Amino acid sequence: MAEEEYRKIELIMALRNQGIRDTNVLRALERVPRENFVPPSFVDQAYDDQSLPIECGQTISQPFIVAYMTEKLQVGDRDKVLEIGTGSGYQTAVLAQLCRRVYTMERYRTLRQAAEQRLADMRMVNVTYLTGDGYKGWPQQAPFDRIIVTAAAPDIPDALVDQLKEGGIMVLPLNVQTGELEKPYQQIVRVTKTEYGLEEETLIDVRFVPMVPGVAREM
Ligand code: SAH
User: Fold this and answer.
1) Ligand 1 in reach of 151 Cβ (< 6 A)
2) pLDDT tens digits, residue range 145-155?
3) CA of 177 to the centre of ligand 1 (A)
4) Cα(67)–Cα(25) distance, integer angstroms
5) Digit-coded pLDDT (tens) for 15-39
6) pTM across the whole model
7) Which residues are identified as catalytic?
8) More confident residue, 219 or 214
9) For the chain, which domains are there?
10) Which one in 8, 106, 149, 184 has a CA-CA gap of 20 to 30 Å to 91?
11) Given phi > 0 = left and psi -120 to 50 = alpha, else beta, which region is 19?
12) Binding site membership of 91 for ligand 1 (Cβ less than 6 Å)
């Protein structure tokens, strides 16, 4: 067996041991070759359970966090999913295995283009891309069954709540108030939109790059 395949299986087993039990999610991670999403100099670390740097000072998320957020999103195969923060397109590719279509937004045009090319090369056709500001969401394609945000916001963006279907679920990292000397961190929050309003569950502590308003000027 190729070294990479062996390391991938080890990673999937480690994710199971860390509590990821949804076999559809585990299978989706198994199907997506993470080595295609990391910069060439990091290929040997593609199956380590850690985030890695990508272009534009951004990161590809840690496999555990991708698996965890995807599991909490409870994606169904008929779902229309909005993703904010395409980055490398790794989380996008995992979602694309599980749902009807992913609508993914990224504020850096270069990252969006690279991710689009990468997923097209892998024949992942159920993804639509947009360079735009995730704080505004994608009103032309709303409403969405599921929304996932992979950058850290101070609060739940109103536009995203508006664009979520009733009964829909949104998973996102929200900033936690910290002291001046403390490193900023977030908590994963799962929001369910009900007829009575929003139900919020706070889950695990995480570290994400910030969600920055507007489209990036440096491309
Ligand atoms: N899911 C990605 C993680 C990328 S890091 C992966 O696995 O590779 C988060 C991404 O969110 C970055 O690429 C950043 O540019 C993007 N981002 C930050 N603020 C944004 C905004 N307001 N709208 C859209 N994308 C944003």
Assistant:
1) yes
2) 999 999 999 99
3) 21
4) 6
5) 999 999 999 999 999 999 999 999 9
6) 0.97
7) 61
8) 214
9) 3-206 (3.40.50.150)
10) 184
11) left
12) yes
